[in-house]
Design goal:
The structure holds 2 protein chains of 2 kinds.
Chain A lengths: L12 H6 L10 H4 L12 H8 L9 H5 L6 H9 L3 H9 L5 H7 L21 H15 L14 E5 L3 H12 L3 E5 L8 H4 L8 H13 L3 E3 L10 H5 L6 E4 L5 E2 L12 E3 H10 L19 E5 L3 H12 L4 E5 L11 H10 L2 E3 L2 E8 L3 E14 L5 E5 L5 E4 L2 E4 L3 E2 L3 H4 L26 E3 L2 H4 L4 H21 L17
Chain B lengths: L1 E10 L2 E7 L1 H6 L5 E5 L7 E9 L4 E7 L3 H6 L7 E2 L1 E6 L10 E7 L2 H14 L3 E8 L8 H7 L2 E6 L6 E2 L2 H11 L4 E5 L2 H11 L6 E4 L15 E4 L2 E4 H4 L2 E3 L5 H8 L3 H13 L2 H9 L11 H6 L3
Parallel strand pairs in B: 8-9, 8-12, 9-10, 10-11, 12-13
Antiparallel strand pairs in B: 1-2, 1-6, 2-5, 3-4, 3-7, 4-5, 13-16, 14-15
Classes of the chains: A alpha/beta, B alpha/beta.
Keywords (chain B): 2Fe-2S, FAD, Flavoprotein, Iron, Iron-sulfur, Metal-binding
Protein name (chain B): Sulfide/dihydroorotate dehydrogenase-like FAD/NAD-binding protein
Organism (chain B): Candidatus Korobacter versatilis
């Protein structure tokens, strides 16, 4: 306990435990609330070193267990301590092909950092911050730490969707020597990373650099291809000669609450609002052509309590909204959004209305207000959370000329509807074996939100890794068996 | 990038562009559309596929100047490239052997109705086409439509060609003459609404193709949601064709007005000086020839 155990770290375990976590430098709230500048500014090498020195180099690292893609945390932190930042990057990329992104958007408190031993007595190691530091260092210096690629196998894999699941699977499969092509329906790559998560949490340059890194590793991309319309799974397995397919189309279909007034002008799904702003740059109209309602001096209401709702609210604020009310039907404790994001939003001036639920949107041509009702928490429901119940006679109106609905998304049925024999659930999610991600169609795998429903970036990446492992097994053994055979619930053909 | 291989002016401010897009040509069926983004700063707009050829990999779109993006598209010539074209999107038209079918095209809607009219004819329907335009100069695809159908009735608002009157006048006359089994109407919202009211009393199977505002065109944003049967449907994936008697056309008109002032602002800026857009395209290698600002044509463009 008294001797240094790591040649790169002069401190004893006891000394390490006395160090406090290095806080993430942030752009001040007053400044950032009106610009799309990134909120978190990142560690410099000195901060990164100080933070890395806190790691206890556990013999059985529990942080790795908490990481959905199994990043070798202890190993990469050791490389940081040795000053080998590019080596650290390559070490991370063996398991995670998007470190600059996951370092920013993962809910680390529930994952790697949640398992950190130091966290039992003090604040856990800033693993996400360190991961991000390593990836940003590469970007700053222009050098890239890429893992080695296995000899080519001649096998071809098509990946449907360029979101986190698709990209992670693509990265793993090229490393194993397969030929990989990613098909994307939109004109830009990244899925939710491109159209959903705003610039102030994930700068576009960071996404583009990670995409270039994947290209450098040998991944091919084709945009403007809607699988199910432009080409079908059967075309890809037939004429186009792919040996395996990974379906990672996400859960991109926005849900509405089916309450009166949802079709009023000025009522958006969060997907539409964020797509207009993030993907189409509508905040720079007319320099960019896509329009979006002018938020300047407007009262904006956002419905929902997840990360998407917070992203939409903070985006509207940055576009000049006078007030932004976030309407959430449960209490603060149940909010699914990351704690850090909630804190950032409140600091910036977002007003959160807990235990409140919209019942109608009012207006003539354009929405004018939200009629909402107060809620009280009742008995726990199937999800284990206490069920919100409307309080009778508590209706009131919240003024709003722009409303953004962020109450969740569901599966887009295009691939399923055009792939005969592909089993789906009643709600149109694809049925896949939880261990192997094999579907009811030979050679077709599925993972990420299209199987699980809306989840997090890193869980989708975990599914992508698992799919890569399983696709690799299929390509090398050629054995396909499903146990038990998946129940086919729908086989519509278009 | 998607090269323009042919361009033909059909009428004032209406152009037929043939694009090389082999994946789309291979899968296109009548009633489907593409989403186009002209250049790096461009918006995504939906345009119906008016024709396609699997062999050559060509698709045809017909563009009428209605705002900035369509005005820019109408300046392009063979050899120029569009940055993004995605499709074919939407459900294909339901082609069956209905019997007596009427296909109604109003203005540039004629171009959208044309592939479905041809497919209905090929499926052994007796197809009557009614095409309407404000004036003779705006009439398009007359000979193509005539060749693809059994009879063609031309209506102009001012009587400068064909018969004076609205497409609904011709439709009423047909309904008095014979039993109609199917009507498809494509054109401005007031025209489609009027057709729906004409056929409603006799419960004639009537379809319309809805021109809602779209962004992605794949069902992920719901911007194109339309009110059908008092419920919400997404025109890009559930349509664009719907049962005309179940559509709330007033909601469609209202939603289509959402960005009117911003659209006018874009158009005015482009009208005053189209060079930033052309330079953006040139820098990306989308323009291969010298192109001037076409002052005469620009002046004629108005919303």
């Amino acid at each position: 306990m008294n001797k240094p155990v790591n040649p790169n770290n002069p401190l004893t375990l006891k000394e390490r435990m006395q160090l406090d976590r290095q806080p993430m430098p942030e752009c001040p709230a007053a400044e950032r609330a009106h610009s799309f500048t990134e909120v978190n500014q990142g560690y410099d090498p000195q901060l990164a070193n100080c933070e890395a020195m806190r790691c206890l180099s556990c013999a059985k690292p529990t942080c790795v267990v908490g990481c959905p893609v199994g990043v070798k945390v202890k190993d990469f932190i050791d490389l940081i301590l040795a000053g080998d930042y590019l080596g650290a990057a390559a070490k991370i990329r063996e398991d995670n092909v998007l470190p600059a992104i996951t370092g920013r958007v993962c809910p680390q408190e529930d994952q790697c950092e949640g398992g950190c031993v130091v966290g039992r007595k003090k604040e856990s190691i800033g693993i996400g911050n360190l991961e991000r530091f390593v990836a940003d260092y590469e970007q700053r210096t222009g050098a890239v730490g890429l893992p080695e690629r296995a000899p080519r196998t001649g096998k071809r894999v098509a990946i449907i969707g360029s979101g986190p699941a698709g990209l992670s699977c693509a990265g793993d499969l090229v490393q194993r020597g397969h030929e990989v092509r990613v098909f994307e329906a939109l004109h830009e790559l990244g899925g939710v990373l491109a159209y959903g998560i705003p610039e102030f949490r994930l700068p576009r340059a960071v996404l583009h650099q990670e995409l270039r890194n994947l290209e450098a590793m040998g991944v091919e991309f084709e945009t403007n291809v809607v699988v199910g319309r432009t080409v079908t799974i059967d075309d890809l397995l037939g004429n186009e000669g792919y040996h395996a397919i990974f379906v990672a189309t996400g859960a991109g279909l926005p849900q509405f609450m089916k309450i009166p007034g949802e079709d009023l002008n000025g009522v958006y799904s969060a997907n539409e609002f964020l797509t207009r702003v993030n993907l189409m740059r509508a905040y720079r109209h007319p320099d960019y052509d896509q329009p979006v309602y002018d938020c300047r001096d407007q009262e904006v209401a956002v419905v929902g309590g997840g990360n998407t709702a917070l992203d939409a609210a903070r985006t509207a604020l940055r576009m000049g909204a006078r007030t932004v009310n976030l309407i959430y039907r449960r209490s603060a404790a149940e909010m699914p959004a990351r704690k850090e994001e909630v804190r950032h939003a409140v600091d910036e001036g977002i007003h959160i209305m807990h235990l409140t639920n919209p019942v109608a949107y009012l207006g003539d041509e354009r929405v004018r207000s939200v009629r909402a009702v107060k809620m009280a928490l009742g008995e726990p429901d199937e999800s284990g959370r206490r069920r919100p119940m409307p309080v009778e006679g508590s209706e009131f109106e919240v003024p709003a000329s722009i409303v953004i609905v962020a109450v969740g998304t569901t599966a887009n049925p295009l691939v399923q509807a055009t792939t005969p024999g592909l089993a789906t659930t009643k709600r149109n999610y694809i049925v896949a074996d939880p261990k192997t991600l094999r579907t009811s169609r030979e050679g077709v795998f599925a993972g990420g939100d299209i199987v699980t429903g809306g989840a997090t970036v890193i869980l989708a990446m975990g599914a992508g890794r698992k799919a890569a492992q399983s696709v690799h097994e299929w390509l090398t053994t050629g054995v396909w068996q499903m146990d038990p055979p998946a129940q086919i619930t729908s086989t519509p053909a278009v | 990038m998607f090269p323009i291989v042919a361009a033909q002016e059909l009428a004032k401010d209406i152009k037929r562009l043939t694009l090389f897009a082999p994946r789309i040509a291979r899968r296109h069926q009548p009633g489907q559309f593409v989403i186009v983004r002209v250049h790096e700063h461009g918006e995504r707009i939906p345009l119906t596929i008016a024709d396609s050829d699997r062999e050559s990999g060509h698709i045809t779109i017909i563009v009428q100047t209605a705002g900035k993006t369509t005005a820019l598209l109408n300046m392009l010539e063979p050899g120029d490239c569009l940055l993004d074209v995605v499709g074919p999107l939407g459900k294909p038209s339901e082609i069956e052997r209905y019997g007596n079918a009427v296909v109604i095209g109003g203005g540039v809607g004629t171009a959208i109705a044309y592939p479905t009219a041809r497919a209905l004819h090929a499926a052994d329907n007796h197809v009557t086409a009614i095409v309407g335009a404000r004036t003779r100069d705006l009439l398009i695809l007359e000979s193509e439509m005539r060749a693809a159908t059994d009879e063609l009735l031309v209506m102009t608002d001012d009587g400068s060609y064909g018969e004076k009157g609205f497409v609904t006048d011709a439709l009423r006359r047909l309904m008095a003459e014979r039993r109609l089994d199917y009507v498809l109407a494509i054109g401005p919202v007031p025209m489609m609404k009027a057709v729906a009211e004409v056929t409603r009393p006799q419960a004639i199977h009537t379809f319309v193709s809805l021109n809602a505002i779209m962004v992605d065109g794949t069902g992920m944003c719901g911007g194109c949601r339309v009110s059908v049967n008092e419920g919400s449907q997404f025109a890009c994936v559930d349509g664009p064709e719907f049962d005309a008697h179940r559509v709330d056309f007033d909601v469609l008109s209202r939603r289509n007005r959402q960005y009117r002032s911003l659209e006018a602002e874009s158009m005015a800026a482009f009208h005053a000086d189209p060079t930033p857009d052309l330079e953006l395209m040139r820098a990306a290698g989308q323009l291969t020839r010298e192109i001037g600002p076409h002052p005469a044509r620009m002046r004629s463009v108005a919303r």
